[in-house]
Prior knowledge:
This protein is of the alpha/beta class. It has three domains: 12-32 and 168-291, NAD(P)-binding Rossmann-like Domain (Rossmann fold, 3-Layer(aba) Sandwich), CATH 3.40.50; 35-163, no CATH class; 296-490, no CATH class. The protein contains 16 helices and 14 strands. It is flat.
Amino acid sequence: MSAQAGLAPSVRKAIPASAWSPAPGKLRRAKRVPVTVFTGAGRVVDALALLVAGLAACAVIGIVRLHYGAHLLSVFVGDWMVLTSLSYTGAYRISRLRRPAAQLFCVLLAVMIGMAAVDLCLFLENNMLLPKEPFPEIWAGCTALVLLLSHGLGALLVVRWSASGRMRRNVAVVGISDLSRSLIEGIRAAQNTDLHVVGVYDDNVPANTMHAGVPVLGRVADLLDHGREETLDTIVVAGSMQESTHVQSVCSQLSSAIADVYLMTDVSGRNLGSPIFAGICDRVVVMIRRRPLDDWQVIQKMLFDRVGSLAAIVLLAPVLLTIALLVRLSGPGPIVFRQERVGFNNRTFICFKFRSMHHHRSDSGEIAQATRHDPRVTWIGRWLRKLSLDELPQLFNVLRGDMSLVGPRPHAPATKAGDHYFQDVVTDYAVRHRVKPGITGWAQVNGWRGETRTAQQLQARIDHDFHYIENWSMLFDVRILILTVMRELRSKTAY
């Protein structure tokens, strides 16, 4: 991607202080309101508001005059239809929350569908006769009122936080060309958009220059580093079809980025009949890689992890205390072993485990994997490893947000398969860091745990991790947890 003529050199003071940090080449850590949290909270608020509306409708009619079971069932069915309709009409999209007319349409359509569902339930329950009380109409009125209030408040917050820059979606552009200039100008000219171009990256252009009024912040490698420090929501690679080799190399470098990655190329036409084509401010882009979890899935998994880990800690408290006492009796050294591991978005964190080795023989410097009949393992540590009980302190890692209950197992930075580091054996090894590491995972319940001696063993483990990332669902997590309890107690690779 060649630089275009006319790039004007700039000094750092030309970059607005509101958008960039004082340190060159670093994105500012702004206090943002995550869209994932906001939209997820909106769904929860709507669910509670609908429940209140249903109870209010029952109170208006009078609970004595109601067929209790039938009316409650109709309320739940109506609420479910309303929430489904709001989701399908895009009522929780930030772009629609900025438009009062769009919100009014979504809410009224959802209420009409919900009222029809309530009416149908009561009609079927009343032996194909219309209900005598105007319950569906009263329910619809209460529902419309609470939804208009909640979505009105949500729209007010979106407008206010968008104006202050707290709800913008950060976009990074890769490549300096006429295509990237067109994209940047399109985003700048667009109305009712939360997109904000934070910078341009190009391997052939020095930093601290400007392109289409946006600073060049460095190379593609710098983009990955900045992505670990500041949230990047979207990355757009701008390159022509004649540069396919270079574009492919750039996209390969971005394989571990925690962002939606698009390719903007010089292909013409909008109606190409493929779901991989999309639009960003009327510019045609091609989806290269999507974030593993969308907004609502992030909320679901976070709640599942926090609630599950807290419940497990409370229920297993006697077991945790007993193991802690036995570890203390096994020899000098700390009860909990702390080791640096690579986690989400290639960030390192301190992983907790019950100490299972003699303290004076534990790892220092290069990481050595445990082997069968390892002399470093204590008498209680052998049983803890066999039953996978040494991993239980990682419940606190989950509670802290460093880990998940289910995900790819975290590895130490210097771990090797044979004589080679993990990241040198598998080209796309870093892709597994696009989700949080887990206490257990799909690879583990399929027997790929324990010592990794060969590149083939590591590749099989990584392939299972990739399968989990690409096919995640809440039910998949529950399935893995059940399989963990069933299989890990008799695992032959735990030592």
